[in-house]
Every structure is written in structure tokens, then in C-alpha cells.
Amino acid sequence: MIKYIVVALLVGGVAGYLNSNYGSITAGNFVSDYLFNASLLLLLFIMGVAFGMDKESIAKMKRVGFRILLFPFAVALGSILGGVVSGIILGINITASMAVGAGYGWYTLAGPLTNQLFGAEWGALGFTVNFLRELFTIMTISLIVRVDKYAPIALGGATTMDTTLPIIVRYCGSDTLITAFSSGFVLSIIAPFTITAIAALPH
Amino acid sequence: MFDSTIYLLSLVIALVAGLCSGYFLRNRKRVNFGKFTFGVILILIFSLGFSIGSNNALLNSLPHIGLNATVILLFVLAFSVLLVKVVKKMVKIE
Question: Which residues neighbour A40 within 8 Å (Cβ) at sequence distance 6 or greater?
């Protein structure tokens, strides 16, 4: 199954590259905006229906309750801590590498925001690290799920409410839908605030 | 900021609409959406790849900052998984 996903990603990448250099802007916008959003909304709706019909998943959700909100905060803390440690090891600006980590995989936010707050070089890094986070989650999910059922949710960060959600539900089980979505949702909401707050630290 | 708020809201609305529909249909016969869902996943991943491939600025910056980016990424991921495991143990979620 992961084979088809990787192939779809690569074919899409090549098609997008060719289109942006030789093709039409209209076609590009159609795929990147319309097709992307339409398929995402449809998937969320279908996964919602499947979860709503599944009495076991609902019962499990009720047992866990508000404790699932601890996941996104663990992911946030882990991401920022990872930024600190890698900043120390690489000998680069630790505040900036913390901010890069605090993008939680949302590269279209982290890129421009770190660019604005720390300069162009960090903007590129903020974009790349968070973009690779999404890519890495998609590519390695079949292995990472063996480490821990919830490890893909930790890897996906903010992307677990959209791009990586359908794949996580496939590999980790349909009962992880709400955990993954709420984790991605909370991380998406706190990402702009944590990045800005980190930038306010002395650096 | 405004755009991303609308985006987040639209995702929540789609999911909640699905959850409510599913809940009201819960005593009906279960339909297997597996194949259809997977088809839509492939469309989603294709269009994700497409917008990455269209982003020339990103593709050009990858080679220079690859090493720093990889090191930061690995630590970010390792600590995220570690802390999630710790929290899971602490609050006993299966």
C-alpha cells in the first residue's frame, strides 16, 4: 500500500515540476488548490462517517477523554526540545532552531514566519525541515507504526489534521482518528504563537 | 492568518459533518469505504506532490541546507516520539 502512496507522491512531484516550468498556471492552481482541498474535505467527511458509525471507537474515545489533549503538548515540547539539542550540536542560533522545530511540520506557515523573524536563511531552513517532516511521516509510516501505535502522530505534528491523517488512520487504526486530528488541530493553532514567542527570546 | 483560520475551520466542519452523519447512521448496515478512500488518498498525495514539485524555490534551497535540516529534523522527531511515549505511560493510554 505504501508503494502506491510513494509512487503517487513522486508522480505528482514530477508532474508539478514539469507543469510549473512548461505548463499552465491554471492547471497548476487547479491541482494544488482545488483538487487538494476537495479530496481532503471528502476524506475528512468519509473518515468522520466511518468513526461515527463505529461504536467501539466511540467507546474507546470516551474512556480516554480529555487526556488526548496531552498528545499535542508532548509533541510541541518534543519538537522545541529537538530544536534546542540540534542547535547546540550544530553550533547554530539555538533560538532560531527552536523556532524551526516549533513549525510542527506546517511548512507553509513556518517558512514565511521564520523568514520574517530570523531572516532568509532561517526561512529556507524553517520551510525545509517542516516540509521534510511531512514527507518523512508519509514515507516511513509503515515502519514507524511498529515503534509505537501513536508514534506516527508524534512524527506528523500539525499535519495529522490534514495531509497525513488519512494514512495514519489506515496504518494505526480507525480509533486513532480523533486523537490524530485533535493533535494536528491543537498544534496548528499553537504553531504561529509558539514561533513568535520563541522569537521574542533573546538571541 | 485569516486564510489559515478559514482552512482550519473548513477541515473541522467536514470532519464534524461526517461524524454526525455516521452517528445517525450507526444502526444501518456498515458500508466498506476502504477502496474508495484509498483512491481519494492517492489523489490527495498526488496533489501534495504536485504542489511540492511546483515550488521551485523549495527545490533549489534543498541541496544547500540539507545537512542542517536533516539534523534538526531527526532530533525534532526523536524527541516528539519520546515525549509522546512518556505521556502515554504517565496517563495510561493504550
Answer: A162, A163, B11, B14, B44
